[in-house]
Design brief:
CATH architecture: 3-Layer(aba) Sandwich
Number of helices: 6
Number of domains: 1
Structural class: alpha/beta
Helix content: 40-55%
Strand content: 15-25%
Largest sheet: 5 strands, parallel
Distance between the termini: 11 Å
Strand order of the largest sheet: 2-1-3-4-5
Order of helices and strands: EHEHHEHEHEH
Radius of gyration: 14 Å
């Protein structure tokens, strides 16, 4: 039985955009699987353009507080994504999946050294493999409900 989950999707919006297509792929997959992606990508361009930094911060914290889990594309460095991961793990204690391309740079020790049982880190080689990793994570979340 499919239970609709709210999944906060974290990825680069500013800064290192080399892996942004994988982020878009994650958001699209969450939709396709019948879940609700909480992401700036779900907003109209007008809504996104009008938001101040403070508005973005407050909106994203609110989305995180509503989320059942967080899925983060971490192939490139992002202070915002790192903040969201820490907030999800340590303030909200919700499950977090971090995915990164196998060929990407080293991941921060603040992620790889984190021993939270709520954190899963996976590498992928292809878009198909990325889809499979995210599908398995969401399937596990559904079965835990």
């Amino acid at each position: 039985m499919n239970h609709s989950l709210k999944i906060y999707c974290a990825g680069p919006i500013r800064g290192d955009l080399r892996h942004v297509e994988s982020y878009y792929q994650i958001v699209a997959l969450v939709w396709q699987l019948g879940h609700t992606p909480l992401t700036e990508l779900a907003l109209s361009e007008t809504e996104a353009a009008k938001a101040s930094d403070k508005d973005i911060f407050l909106r994203d914290l609110q989305w995180l507080q509503q989320a059942d889990a967080l899925v983060a594309e971490v192939s490139g460095p992002s202070l915002g994504v790192g903040y969201e991961i820490a907030y999800a793990l340590h303030a909200l204690t919700i499950p977090v999946l971090c995915v990164r391309k196998h060929s990407s740079n080293e991941l921060s020790a603040m992620i790889t050294g984190n021993f939270s049982r709520q954190l899963t880190i996976k590498e992928y080689l292809s878009g198909q493999e990325l889809d499979q990793i995210v599908k398995e994570f969401l399937k596990d979340l559904e079965s835990d409900r």
